[in-house]
Design a protein that fits this description.
- This protein is α/β, with parallel strands linked by helices.
- The chain folds into two domains: 2-139, NAD(P)-binding Rossmann-like Domain (Rossmann fold, 3-Layer(aba) Sandwich), CATH 3.40.50.720; 172-394 and 411-459, Dihydrodipicolinate Reductase, domain 2 (2-Layer Sandwich).
- Helices cover 33% and strands 19% of the residues.
- A nine-stranded mixed β-sheet has the order 14-13-12-11-7-10-9-8-15. A six-stranded parallel β-sheet has the order 3-2-1-4-5-6, sandwiched between helices.
- The two termini are 47 Å apart.
- The relative contact order is 0.14.
- It binds NADP nicotinamide-adenine-dinucleotide phosphate (NAP).
- NADP nicotinamide-adenine-dinucleotide phosphate is lined by residues 6, 8-11, 14, 39-41, 112-117, 139-140.
- It holds the Pfam family G6PD_N.
Length: 460
């Protein structure tokens, strides 16, 4: 049973229902299952079923918008003091699912509610005796500062065992992010070059063309660095930088990620960070007239371990930029100049968008009589790989929660270390966001962070 807190919200509609639909289509849901949606108002089961169908028409497979029909119930949520309709509804749904054979029922609480509601909902679970044996999914951000992270985590561990907790960072759930492991650990061609000896820099570039119109209030209180950098980009950086785990299970992968995040040098906001704000941002409804919120961040992160010392990890993301992409690129060192001027650095580049793709750029001989060099790129679209049936990231994460696999979720020690590296950007040295025109690559100063060759995406 999936108890979905915030069942009429944006995330539920755009991600969770389409994710469940994809699982149903792939036959990955249990034979008997229920979605028990909840929220602060009274609604009927049918009203939520309408919301689900509408969401699938808009964000899922519109031809099968009735895919979750018959599985949807609704009950008003609890507060710490009042059980609402939810406590009885969980009991009734558990009894129905257990059936005559009294089967075990897995109960998952998914907190698709604003972060300010994470603590009250967690306390509500405790107050109403609902915490035992359940799994609880926390959306991001799990804390917005080192202090708020510690506070939330202390409460969560008062109420739940760590094994019950699933903290989402949906970049970790992406098919292509997981492919980074395989690319590296299953291929000596790549595994052998995965270090400072061969890699000159790593770029993790997530430009967005979208603005913030439908989430302006949330965004203005958060900004690009908190929304994206300390969360997704740091986690992807950890995924790239980590040492080989002892095994590919949840515990060992989390340990390997944590170990390398602990080696992230705290950001130097003056030297290594450029913040930006696109022109016109302050005119958006819901944004303060004098807002200093960053809609763009570029950061140079240093990973102080033996594998990566001296190799910059260049992280960039922003709104209203020139292109939309999600790319991890290892820019390789250029070999000695036996051939004169090198044609350009070799690159291994993984697109994390959609089903993912791997591009490998190498130096080759330019066809013709002279020994002249050129670069060429070979691409492998990951959905071309037979039998190629990838799940969307949220479907994959939901599936993992339902089967209890915590491999793709963040751990408290990893988040604690991420906040430690990020913390200087929350202090007095935080740079003023510099203006940039919509449709560009952000403030010019950010280009310089990437060195003389600049950002790969900007050039291509
Ligand atoms: N939307 C996205 O694209 C996205 C992406 C990544 C992560 N997230 C995370 O996912 C979570 C949900 O995001 P969202 O965009 O769906 O948010 P949302 O639409 O603002 O809120 C979701 C639902 O939460 C309920 N809610 C609002 N305030 C509440 C409160 N104080 N206490 C209890 N319930 C409350 C509301 O339902 P009722 O009015 O029915 O109670 C609302 O429909 C957030 O933590 C967000 O950071 C969202």
């Amino acid at each position: 049973m999936l108890v979905l807190h915030g069942s009429r919200g944006d995330l539920a509609r755009r991600m969770v229902y389409p994710g469940l639909q994809a699982l149903a289509a792939a036959d990955l849901l249990p034979e008997r299952w229920l979605l028990l949606g909840t929220g602060r108002q009274e609604h009927t089961d049918d009203e939520l079923a309408d919301v689900v169908r509408e969401s699938l028409r808009e964000h899922g497979d519109a031809d099968r918008a009735d895919a979750l029909d018959g599985h949807v119930r609704y009950a008003s949520t609890f507060t710490e003091d009042e059980p609402g309709g939810l406590v009885d509804a969980i009991q009734a749904a558990t009894a129905d699912l257990a059936g005559d054979d009294d089967a075990d029922v897995t109960v998952v609480h998914y907190l698709a509610v604003p972060p300010s509601a994470f603590a009250p909902t967690t306390r509500g679970l405790r107050a109403h005796g609902l915490a035992d044996g359940v799994r609880v999914v926390y959306e991001k951000p799990y804390g917005t500062s080192p202090e708020s992270f510690e506070e939330l985590d202390a409460l969560v561990h008062e109420v739940l065992d760590e094994e019950q907790v699933f903290r989402i960072d949906h970049f970790l759930g992406k098919e292509a992010t997981q492919n980074l492991h395989v690319l590296r650990f299953a291929n000596e061609l790549f595994g052998g070059i995965w270090s400072r000896e061969h890699v000159a820099q790593v770029q993790i570039d997530v430009p967005e063309t979208l603005d913030v119109a439908d989430r302006a209030e949330f965004y203005d209180a958060t900004g690009a660095a908190l929304d994206m950098l300390v969360t997704h980009l740091f986690q992807v950086a950890a995924q790239v930088a980590m040492g080989p785990p002892a095994a590919m299970d949840a515990q060992n992968l989390a340990a390997a990620r944590e170990e390398v995040i602990r080696c992230f040098r705290p950001l130097d906001p003056r030297e290594d960070v450029v913040l930006g704000q696109f022109t016109g941002y302050r005119d958006i409804e819901g944004v303060a007239d004098d807002s200093t919120t960053d809609t763009f961040v570029a950061a140079r992160l240093w990973v102080d371990d033996d594998r990566w010392r001296g190799v910059p990890f260049l992280l960039r993301t922003g709104k209203r930029m020139a292109a939309q992409a999600q790319r991890v690129t290892l820019v390789l060192r250029t070999p000695d100049e036996l051939f004169g001027e090198p044609a350009g650095p070799g690159r291994v580049s993984v697109s994390l968008a959609g089903d993912g793709a791997i591009d490998i750029t190498t130096t080759v001989k330019r066809p013709g009589p002279d020994l002249a060099l050129a670069t060429g790129t070979a691409s492998l679209a990951l959905d071309d790989v037979e039998p190629g049936d990838p799940l969307p990231p949220y479907a994959s994460l939901l599936h993992d929660v339902l089967v209890g696999d915590r491999t793709l979720f963040t751990s408290p020690d990893g988040l604690r270390a991420a906040f430690a590296a990020f913390a200087p950007l929350l202090g007095p040295d935080r740079p003023e966001p510099e203006p940039y025109e919509p449709g560009t690559w952000g403030p010019a100063r950010a280009d310089a962070l990437a060195g003389p060759d600049g950002w790969v995406l900007t050039r291509s």
